[in-house]
Design goal:
Elements (H helix, E strand, L loop, with lengths): L13 E6 L5 H13 L14 E6 L10 H4 L1 E5 L6 E5 H7 L1 H12 L6 H6 L1 E3 L13 E2 L5
Length: about 140
């Protein structure tokens, strides 16, 4: 008996909506990355694009446990000499909570050629509204 390999899906992306209220950041990111990669699908195949999109709402209501708000530091470089920039999780959470969630999910996506394509299908919003009603997204519960 041969091994089953799913065919590549064509057509529209199936969008899902997740409410981040009350979730711990790491748990939300791990389960969101699982949805984006298609690992929750019964016909998951690693090299196939499963055409999933994810909309995360209420980004400002996510939680960080322990001392992460004060001790976790996000770094990036401007590309110029001496251009290393650092920002604490607390300041990033107060100014751009959607970026905090996006960075966490992006870090949990596979490190290969699919990563940027999957990251483009992730939309994160502050508040409970989003402009993607035209895609008729379905509500998704990440609880096990």
């Amino acid at each position: 008996m041969g091994t089953y390999l799913a065919r590549a899906r064509r057509g529209q992306i199936h969008w899902r909506v997740v409410d981040a209220e009350g979730w711990v950041l790491g748990r939300l990111a791990a389960r969101a990355a699982r949805v984006l990669t298609g690992k929750d699908a019964p016909d998951y195949t690693p090299h196939v694009d499963h055409r999933r999109g994810l909309i995360v709402i209420n980004a400002e209501k996510v939680r960080l446990t322990g001392k992460k708000l004060d001790e976790k530091v996000y770094r990036h470089t401007t590309g110029y000499p001496g251009g290393l920039r650092e920002i604490t999780a607390r300041k990033l959470f107060e100014t751009q909570p959607e970026k905090l969630i996006r960075e966490a999910i992006y870090g949990m996506l596979p490190k290969n050629r699919w990563r940027d394509r999957l990251a483009r299908r992730l939309k994160v919003y502050v508040g409970s509204t989003h402009p993607h009603a035209g895609q008729s997204p379905q509500a998704l519960s990440l609880a096990r």
